[in-house]
UniProtKB/TrEMBL annotation:
UniProt-listed SUPFAM superfamilies: DinB/YfiT-like putative metalloenzymes
Domain MDMPI C-terminal: 172-265
Organism lineage string: Bacteria, Bacillati, Actinomycetota, Actinomycetes, Kitasatosporales
Protein name: Maleylpyruvate isomerase family mycothiol-dependent enzyme
Keywords: Isomerase
Molecular function in Gene Ontology: isomerase activity
Organism whose genome encodes this protein: Yinghuangia aomiensis
Domain Mycothiol-dependent maleylpyruvate isomerase metal-binding: 16-156
Keyword Chaperone in annotation: no
Superkingdom as given in the UniProt entry: Bacteria
Amino acid sequence: MSNDPQDLGYLVEAWEQSVRSLSDVVSGLTEGQWNRATECPGWSIRDVVSHVIGVELELLGDPRPIHTLPSDLAHVRPGDEFSRYCEIPVDVRRCHTAAEMTGELSYVLMRRLRMLRDSETAPETEVRGMMGRSTPYRHLLRSRAFDVWAHEQDIRRATGLPGNLDSPAAQISRDFLLRQLPLVVAEDAKIPAGNAVVFDVHGPLEFMRTVTVQPGGKAALDGQVPLAPLVRFSTDWETFARLMCGRIRPQHADVKVDGDRRAADLILAEMAVTL
């Protein structure tokens, strides 16, 4: 495997490793375990796998299922078209057996991998992504590696089988999430210009990054650590990822905070950039 996260082959192989790892974890589950809740709001293990299958089928060009959602799904927010969109391929599989789920996942993986390996699409070519939206091919591959890894971790936590926290897809996910931090600090939490916020993360993936809010309200991310940041967060990689993926509430997360507590709370409240 190439070590260059900009290389399309690296992105495809990272996606493949993570989805195969997910498949390995669910292959040994009993029927009852497929109904076990995950940290992904409202979704069981079956639902998470259904989501992965549904997205990859759509990217293969298969027609989406024609299905009317029940009106009592509390995690599907009224007016949120994206959550309803994601829920349809999930809800149609809620009656599927373990054998049906693992069989379909294996078949979809085989088809999608063949498609990706045969593709001659250039990195910046605009392609059809979720909801029919146009996106650069490299960005689509990167977002798929992140999405599958995040859901693999949902399943691993639900089954008590930790792993793959430092995999290639984990590294792609780290970089994907780090790119969101300037927006979280400057635009969402509205930290004033001239302030710096440090994120010190340890564990399987270790990194230290500083978000500095610049004049005009924009922010920059780098590896320089100032002497007196406004806030310094210290936590482990898994907790950091869970916070940014909306899997854990800030008040329940093991995060050490040094500095301005009010500013820290504002930032922590905005750290969930995806669900």
